Amino acid sequence: MKHHLAALLLGTAALATPAKADTLDIVKQRGTVTCGVSQGVAGFSAPDDAGKWSGFDIDVCRAVAAAVLGDADKVSYVPLSTKERFTAVQSGTVDLLSRQTTWTLSRDSSLGLRFAGTAYYDGQGFMVRKDLGVDSALKLDGATVCTEQGTTTEQNVADYFSANKLKYEPVVIDSADGIIKAFDTGRCDVYTTDASALYAQRLKLTDPANYTVLPEIISKEPLGPAVRQGDDKWFSIVRWTLFALIEAEELGITKDNAEAGLTSANPAIKRFLGAEGDSGQQLGLDPRWAYNVVSKVGNYGEIFERNLGQSSDLKIDRGINAQWNAGGLMYAPPVR
Fold first, then answer.
1. 8 and 141 housed in the same domain
2. Quick one: how far is CA 190 from the chain centroid?
């Protein structure tokens, strides 16, 4: 399946011309959202032994399905490598990419993509074995450093070592699982990628307690869902689904109380949930599209907590991913 998909993507890469069909109509006719995800990163997108996918990025896919189809489970997941991910969006193989992908100028302008927003504010970090005796990235002179091919981490680490007049030997590998194997067996001293992924990947090591993530964050990595350029209606739906998750948390609307919110005395809550107003019509969706999102998937805080936060194996602090009124950067335009 994976090799067949890779061949398909390579074959379509040469076409370069994105499909003209309206993705919203295609999704409604098909009855599922096809979502490009990672090949397995704990907390973000990974299948269990029964093949059921879960994670933060998975919940973004589920939220879009809930908004469009009224059912968060109507998603088909396509695991993609870093090399396959952009071609899959360009060619229309997937409707949506939700795969720990950094929003950059070049990707947003020259790859036929449009990023719907930032779902997770991240930054590149470093993980080392504790017995290396290193407590700062500034002490990594001469280290061998594993990075994943086709990612922004390659350039970031080169810039960081050059700026700090440090030497290093890059070990470039084409998959996250390949890096874990190399790192676990001592082929490289350092594993560098987004800090969130380091916490996730550490769980795959033979003895996770023997490894530590260093304090330095050397880049800005705004991660978010991306769609194909030229399909503005679909772009708006994905963007406002993400905003709805964030806005629901600010309004105090949760998976458990969304039903009660339909008769709330607060007009902003009723408008958000579709009991009043016409936001659904403006997006070409059901009037209660946002209600469907929150009642079936939860709000941003709930998604973060169960997949990445203290209720998860990763136990990542909200930090800058907290709401704007709690010291973070999460801020959504109002649904009105």
1. no
2. 24
